[in-house]
């Protein structure tokens, strides 16, 4: 059994822990030609630069807002999907619905970005054609700060809701069926069974997924936004991940971008610990 763990442990060591040596860059004035060993050590100056950067606080606010929108609007949807699919009795219909809502997950963000750029285009896009037909004016959804966050949240939901529901569907399948039989004998209807048996039965899974989601609060969907945004929506669409990408690769400020990434990771770790502690205190359920 321990030998079976060995490949996984080696993978973690090589690809997760070994690269952490690069964290040193955040405390240096890193020079790509001299490397980590030859770069000047500057201590906490990169973090001081981060805390005094107006751009960083704008990016931090954008990240928090987009993540909170996704949690509030999208986190309950897979739970609702799992509960509703559990009530479907025709297996063919149930499997068809599951397949349809799972499929978007397997499309890359590059494809989805191109798809929605076409659909939302102000010139000939399907959505704007409908708006014009109803007497409105075309809207440039992807270049307007008023709408960009909404597009990000909607497309994230369209892609991932079905896939995220798998965890909750599996949790529902693990509930003892005798509870439903006993409830039915006692006169409980389908809706009452849903709220009194199914929902409490999957509550540990909901808590687990919610704690993990809180831990990634500062991960607002870098790949998604990177393929969809442009300089016109930096004010409302630029998040920590895209900011690190632009500063690190675009401006070659590797030390500063590493400091931003380290800050992001540290905050995520603290949020997971806090979320787990609160869950253990108030719900008597936790990851550890």
Describe this protein's structure.
By secondary structure, this protein is mainly α. It has a single domain, classed as MetI-like fold, CATH 1.10.3720.10. It has 16 helices and two strands. It has helices at 2-17, 35-38, 45-51, 54-74, 76-86, 91-102, 109-119, 126-133, 145-173, 177-185, 190-201, 203-215, 222-228, 234-237, 240-250, 254-282, and strands spanning 28-29, 40-41. It has a two-stranded antiparallel sheet. Helix 3 (45-51) packs across helix 16 (254-282), helix 5 (76-86) crosses helix 9 (145-173) and helix 6 crosses helix 9 (145-173). The relative contact order is 0.13. The model has no long low-confidence stretch (mean pLDDT 89). Keywords: Membrane, Transmembrane, Transmembrane helix, Transport. It is a multi-pass membrane protein.
| Biggest pleated sheet | 2 strands, antiparallel
The CATH class is identified as Mainly Alpha
Q: What helical percentage do the residues reach?
A: over 70%
As for the CATH topology, it is MetI-like fold
Rg computed from alpha carbons, rounded to a whole number of angstroms:
23 Å
Strand order within the widest beta sheet: 1-2
Give me the CATH architecture, please. Answer: Orthogonal Bundle
The N- and C-terminal alpha carbons lie at a distance of 23 Å
Counted up, domains total: 1
Principal-axis shape equals: globular
Content-based structural category: mainly alpha
User: What value does the average pLDDT take?
Assistant: 89
Write the element-wise H/E pattern from the N-terminal end onward. Answer: HEHEHHHHHHHHHHHHHH
Strand content: under 5%
Helix segment tally: 16
Number of extended strands:
2
Can you identify the CATH superfamily? Answer: MetI-like
Low-pLDDT stretches are none
Membrane topology: Multi-pass membrane protein
GO cellular component, one term: plasma membrane
Subcellular location: Cell membrane; Membrane
Keywords: Membrane, Transmembrane, Transmembrane helix, Transport
